[in-house]
Amino acid sequence: MNNLRFKALEKIAQQEYVAFSPKMNRLDSFAANVFDERKLQNYLSKPAFKEMMLAIKKGTQISRSLAEQIAQSMKLWALEKGATHYTHWFQPLTGATAEKHESFLDFAKDGRVISALDGSQLVQQEPDASSFPSGGIRNTFEARGYTAWDPTSPAFLFGKTLCIPTIFVSYTGEALDYKTPLLRSISAVDHASTEICKFFDKTVTKVIPTLGWEQEYFLVDRMLMASRPDLILTGRTLLGHSSAKGQQLDDHYFGSIPTRMLSFMNELEEECALLGIPVKTRHNEVAPSQFELAPIFEEANLSVDHNALLIDVMKRTAEKHNLEVLFHEKPFAGINGSGKHNNWSLATNTGVNLLSPGKTPMSNLQFLTFFVNTIAAVHQHQNLLCASMMSASNDHRLGANEAPPTIMSVFIGKQLTKVLNDLAQVSEGKLSPQEKTDLKLNVVGKIPEILLDNTDRNRTSPFAFTGNKFEFRAVGSKANCAKPMTVLNTIVANQLQAFKEKVDALMDKDAKMKKDDAIFNELRDLIKQIKPILFEGDGYSENWIKDAKKRGLNQASNTPEALKAYVSPESIALFTKQNVLGERELEARFSVDLEQFTLALQIEGRTLGDLARNHIIPTAINYLNTLIENVRGLKEIYGDEFKDKAKEQMLLIERISSHIAEINSGVNDMIEKRKNANLISDDLKKALAYCNDVKPCFETIRYHCDKLELLVDNSLWPLAKYRELLFAH
Ligand code: ADP
Ligand code: MG
Predict the structure, then answer these.
(1) Is the pTM of this model over 0.85?
(2) Which residue CA neighbors atom 26 of ligand 1 most closely?
(3) Residue to mutate, 306, 469, 472, ligand 1, most ligand atoms under 8 Å from C-beta
(4) If you take atom 14 of ligand 1, which residue's CA is the nearest one?
(5) What distance, in Å, lies between the first and last C-alpha atoms of the chain?
């Protein structure tokens, strides 16, 4: 029998392993393949370089002639490094990155072959991108969208291709990608934060959100995976009995990294270094064959690009090691899934982290202002933040005793809770000099010390303050970080704006209130409002679900329902006010997300049906025939006494037959429900039908297939088993 599973196992057993040896000095080669500021300076004239820096830092317009100069320099640099092609590199709503390579080859007027990349090709391209999801935006007008250069993220050389980061928009100006709204949200939070900073430090002229993600993933043998159509097509195992040994011994977590995986990581890190991705941390995660990689944080836009690029680099590097990377949030049932913690903060152009307390009472009050306003934003827009990270794949991980539930709460630790409680006592109106001094010295002034030994950690919170940043932990490993980051930047921008308006109003002549009095007053009111979302307990417990309900917090029941938050009147007003997404763009995103959800379940359903019918049932029948043959033989030998001798076999025959029957009826049932769901034209209702009717069928089918896995002869089983996928390497 042509059993891929055994071939793969044999190959793994025979593999003579040559570890990847480091080829370069990563520090010297860092960003060697990035057309960064240093290279710009080398290639551009002085005035052109100055103009370009202004465009990057201040967002000023890039002139035609400057674009020509940059295109020319980029081309020369790339050709010197052996590039053959260039591409606009963008992040459509599929979740993957997209590229369409163009050769540098061109003809001059006299027919000579020349290399080409001119200013207009750098600035704008028109990929025939009508197959990307657009939520109907392009269909209504024209099928085309265009990509436009994002000068704030440097071009890079990937293989022999010069990649130019771009946004992707329709001709009517609507965003068709993740990056456009991200950039708009970065600008919104910049403006709102800079205004607030002026209360404390007039030299601040720009505030940039920062992001440091932590990418979790699984590595599996490529050939073993080839025996699993479910992993190949859906990224997760739809079947598979749990391994006798799973993660119960906790012996993988932070353990020594297996040689083959380490070899992959070393090569990956060299690639990352060349591409300027500042990879810092690597370690084993909780589940067997699960790992984490984290970089040093960067400006959010660059960090988002780096994560999207990393995913591509990881896949390609893994191929060289005969490995496959699983980015799905829950590739295996019964053991931990993968997340992508998004660590977020705000940094000023003066080098201050706004979520880190400073040395003076004023800078600590500034910290508190950003701290409390961020929590207030999360409180007010909890549904939206929740929607920003929910998906068909993340659904399997959330709330499964290993990841936060779909209730937003914020963890801040005991000491900061006390600070907020003290601040909640501030008197109404103008503060007495005594109270103000007391607050500054004994409450605000103590914050730096408090945070120094803030070792308080709560791993079960979806949104936790971790000393100098907030960590959004509910985000899934497959997600494009731009999605949650866009929402976070936007809601914080909106909250900061509202805060500023209130403080300004209090300081208005009539009220005669001083700035810090006004800020203390506003903070006090906010602290009272945000109480329900502050939670220090176990976010994975049953009690929390009840408690959260009492507090008036929302729990998303499923992804399609949660996604509705994108198109609620409050969200539309919020996104429109902050110039991040318009109503049509939000409607489009809602529809794309619903469609992605439905398609994911549709593909899973089809794959599971095929697997059950074409792999599992035939294998079981095969074994059944062997058993029947055996019983027949016993009858020949023992005559009438055979029944006694064949008791166990008969029982097995019955059990296997009954599982086969259950699988068959389960698949029929699922197909029926899929057919009904497919008839629904409304996006939301269809997604809900897939969620509530089709998805539950998976469990029944799986249950019986997994039972068969335990009963059927191991040598016949066609799919790599959990123990092999997780432990054989
Ligand atoms: P852990 O959360 O596992 O304890 P760390 O706290 O060391 O790990 O950091 C996790 C991530 O947070 C890293 O990617 C790091 O770069 C990032 N990070 C640290 N400071 C900031 C910041 N000011 N803004 C954004 N991300 C940050
Ligand atoms: Mg973390």
Answers:
(1) yes
(2) 212
(3) 469
(4) 212
(5) 23
Q: Return the H-helix or E-strand segment holding 295.
A: strand 290-295
Among protein residues, the one with the nearest Cα to ligand 1's atom 11 is 212
Nearest atom in ligand 1 to the alpha carbon of residue 294 is: 14
Q: For ligand 1, pick from 272, 297, 456 the residue to mutate: most ligand atoms within 8 Å of CB.
A: 297
CB 67 within 8 A of CB 122: yes
| Atom 17 in ligand 1: residue holding the nearest Cα | 212
Domain with CATH 3.10.20.70 in the chain: 31-177
Q: If the chain, 729 residues long, is cut into consecutive pieces of 10 residues, what is the mean pLDDT of each piece?
A: 85 83 88 96 94 89 92 95 95 90 90 88 81 72 78 95 95 92 98 97 96 98 96 98 86 82 94 97 92 97 98 96 97 96 97 91 93 98 97 92 89 93 91 89 85 74 94 97 98 98 88 88 97 94 92 94 97 98 96 97 98 98 97 93 91 98 98 98 97 97 98 97 94
Task: Compute the distance from residue 278 Cα to the ligand 1 centre, in Å.
Answer: 12
Res 454: pLDDT: 65
CATH 1.20.120.1560 placement within the chain? 596-727
Of 389, 411, 413, nearest to 399 by C-alpha is: 389
CATH 3.30.590.10 domain extents, the chain? 186-581
Atom of ligand 1 nearest to the CA of 347: 23
**Residue where the block lists tokens 């040559």:** 18
Q: Nearest-CA neighbor of 656 among 684, 691, 616?
A: 616
- Cβ of 345 less than 6 Å from ligand 1: yes
Ligand 1 centre to CA of 538 (Å) is 22
The Cα 563–Cα 384 span in angstroms is: 8
For residue 262, the surrounding DSSP H or E stretch is helix 259-274
* pLDDT value of position 1: 47
CA distance 128 to 388: 28
Of 162, 31, 145, give the one whose Cα is nearest residue 91: 145
Strand partners, 678: none
Q: Indicate the residue type of 508.
A: D
What's the fold here for domain 31-177? Ubiquitin-like (UB roll) (3.10.20)
Give the model's pLDDT for residue 138.
63
Which ligand does the CA of 354 lie closest to? 1
Which ranges constitute the DSSP H helices of 285-432? 300-320, 361-380, 382-387, 414-423
Q: For the domain with range 596-727, which CATH number is right: 3.30.950.10, 3.40.50.150, 1.10.10.10, 1.20.120.1560? A: 1.20.120.1560
Burial label for 691, CB within 10 Å (0-12, 13-18, 19+), is buried
How many A from CA of 214 to the centre of ligand 2? Answer: 7
Which residue is closest in CA terms to ligand 1's atom 13?
Answer: 212
The CATH H-level superfamily of 186-581 is Glutamine synthetase/guanido kinase, catalytic domain (3.30.590.10)
Indicate whether residue 297 lines ligand 1 (CB < 6 A). Answer: yes
